[in-house]
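FIELD: query
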Amino acid sequence: MYLKKISLLRENIKSFDHYPFSIPAIKSLDQIEFRSNVTFFVGENGSGKSTLLEAIAHQCGFNTAGGSRNNVYDVPASESVVADYIRLSWMPKVTSGFFLRAESFYHFASHIDDVDDTGYRAYGGCSLHEQSHGESFFALFMNRFKGKAIYLLDEPEAALSPSRQLAFFRILHDLTRNGTAQFIIATHSPILLGYPNSVILNFDDRKINEIEYEMTDHYQITKYFLQHREKVISEILD
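FIELD: result
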């Protein structure tokens, strides 16, 4: 691992009454220590997981609309407010990596079309726009992710089928087995959360706590639905 700890500089925040500092998980945050090469952020929409991930990306020098330190382009509303109020502790510090933001990946792909004059060698040999959404994500994972780096992924499952999510396990395994890469992933996917030897941090209980896979809502709701599909649908629709 490279990123060891995140600390919220609470003394620099004038008020916790306004967004995003009013988000319960952010409001109660003191520090997070990382102890696995793969860490998941989970929680309901609006729980603060993407907000914190974006702040980490900003502090790493990555484009908060998606990309690395070398990808310079502008997308409205891609600024991170929380970033100015967190401190990252490294050992050692790395500058290589990537921030994947699923909701603005289209803009990143357009940026690559504008600046890439090498035949897209880093992205599988063709424009990301000339591949399906899922194929373009995998082209990024397979060709761009390598070496000593930190990767911050915001809902990568948005473009991945269940089988591709399982295939993504292999990418995680290959990149982290020798301690050469670190991943922090915000996700709603009960499949991705099942990755072995990872740490899951839950943002839903008004503060950020480590949680076991089987205790996540993502696992429990999905399991209950699969076992009682007709009952669940009947209760919702009747």
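FIELD: remark
The first strand starts at residue 3 and ends at 8.
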